[in-house]
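Input (Patatin family protein):
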Amino acid sequence: LVSAGTGSSREEKQLAREPSGGWQDCFLLRLVRAFRTLRSDKNAWQRLVAHKKVGRSGEFFRFDVEFDGPEPPLDSLSSFDDPECDDECTFQGLPALKRLVLCARAELFIFELRASQPYLFSDGGYECCGHIRCRLGAHSESLKEFMSQLARSKAHFRIGGHEVAGDFASYPMIRPDGHFFLEVRFRVASLQESLAVCLWETPDEGRNISGSPFTVQQLVRSQKLEQCFGTSDHRKKRCRDDDDDEASRKRPRCRR
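Output:
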């Protein structure tokens, strides 16, 4: 989740924190300032982050600027001609922006279990098989450039604590259809065990791909792999001939 603010003034924040004395400290004005502070974008964002559910995937990013002077009007274009104002309003180079870029790139990948026999119980655990795919279109220039960038950065995936080589340099020769497809195998102790699939483009830390972390049971349900016979209750689908036969059997007989 990304939130971009419209900017705020450092002077107004300083005046709100420091008591000025006199009539400006009367109860009504202090109440108005407190109400404005409570309704501020920063406080609303802090409340949103505080209510994030533990264990949910995804990250929160907040970008905002602070002006040395008063806030310029939102529809004013004169500030774009001021180089100092441009430097003040840019997000370029911020660590949070770099993390956001890595998150967005990792979200381009999705993980799916193999449709036929996605897992097998063995030696007290589950041997699972699946694949990682990319959302970008097959044979597209964006996918080719993305694969080249990952190959240059020596990126790789990690499933749980195990590293999985991506072999990005071999694209598109590895798949004639032009899609990125990476088969992976892993082992979990339980189908409810949380599993993280991350893309590592830097040696510092990886970023979760789309939907990660998840459990094998969640993937089975989302892919509807438990519905082997077409319906959730595995009942035989009724056809029109069956209905006609049943109706004829239930037709009352006329007594002569």
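The chain is about 30% helix and 20% strand.
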